[in-house]
Design brief:
- This protein has a single domain, classed as Alpha/Beta hydrolase fold, catalytic domain (Rossmann fold, 3-Layer(aba) Sandwich).
- It contains ten helices and nine strands.
- α3 packs across α4 and α5 runs antiparallel to α7.
- The radius of gyration is 18 Å and the shape is globular.
Length: 281
């Protein structure tokens, strides 16, 4: 099922007993509209949703089957959205500011929560989405019950810059660029430049996640692949050890930069165990 809905009632009110649902809508935020998709499992054990934050080239569609699997595995609602400029959301002209991670937490997150009637949620962020999840949890501790990061960056370093430069060259070819176009259409050039030109710029070279970490009181699970091309698994240790709350680190074996796609079963199991361990209802 894939019906457009305004989702004006609570998530539980919309769930047909015994039948999983997928619902799409657009939410007005400063700068345009963002596309939002919600997955509801056949049986809901907790109304607290998992909110997914995509990576630098990502979108709702690029999560593929993971949100549905996560929803059914946890028996919770799962919500994902395309950031402005990505996927089905409103296009952008200028590149993001160097404060775009904080801006997502300060501006977009509160508007989404109000529109979707979210009082509390668990955040799941992939790559830069993980950094955004950390920023959100730091600035909105009441709304955030838990944080899960997947291959989140913590600072600018040589291996990260080398990986981005290699990706820039990879997408310089028409064939590979068009593969990205499948997800972003006419926004594709902006999406690619928003990543490569921002992260490779001198003005972004001092960015770090560290100022957010001491303010986080929610439990955090930081996951990282042992073969991640953008940074070592030790980065997740820094996240887990840097927060004020309870931190847990997991290194995913035989895994690169996309743990939820490369080792889905392991990621699902780790998330479920983490939420149970810290009694995140």
């Amino acid at each position: 099922m894939n019906d457009m809905t305004t989702m004006t009632d609570s998530l539980m009110d919309q769930c047909s007993v015994g039948k999983p649902q997928i619902m799409d809508r657009f939410v007005d935020i400063p700068g345009g509209q963002v596309f939002v998709r919600t997955w509801l499992p056949a049986v809901i054990q907790s109304e607290v949703p998992m909110l997914l934050l995509h990576d630098s080239l990502g979108s709702v569609a690029q999560w593929r089957n993971f949100p549905q699997q996560l929803s059914e595995h946890l028996q919770r609602p799962v919500i994902a959205y395309d950031r402005l400029g990505f996927g089905q959301s409103t296009s952008r002209q200028s590149l993001p500011s160097y404060d775009f991670i904080t801006e997502e937490a300060e501006v977009v997150f509160p508007v989404l929560c109000q529109a979707l009637k979210i009082d509390q949620c668990c955040l799941v962020g992939h790559s830069v989405g993980g950094a955004m999840a950390i920023a959100i949890a730091s600035l909105h501790p009441r709304e955030c019950k838990a944080v899960i990061t997947l291959a989140a960056p913590v600072e600018i370093h040589d291996r990260l810059l080398e990986g981005i430069e290699e990706a820039k060259q990879f997408f310089a070819h028409t064939e590979t660029f068009n593969k990205l176009r499948k997800w972003h259409g006419e926004k594709t050039r902006w999406v690619l430049d928003a990543w490569t030109e921002t992260w490779l710029s001198d003005g972004f070279s001092s960015w770090t996640i560290y100022p957010y970490l001491p303010k986080i009181t929610a439990p955090v699970l930081a996951m990282h692949g042992d073969s991640d091309e953008y940074g070592p698994a030790s980065l997740s240790v820094r996240i887990a050890e840097g927060i004020k709350g309870k931190g847990q680190q997991a290194t995913i074996r035989n895994c690169g930069h996309i743990p939820h796609a490369e080792q889905t079963a392991d990621v699902l199991a780790l998330i479920a165990e983490f939420l149970t361990k810290y009694k995140v209802s």
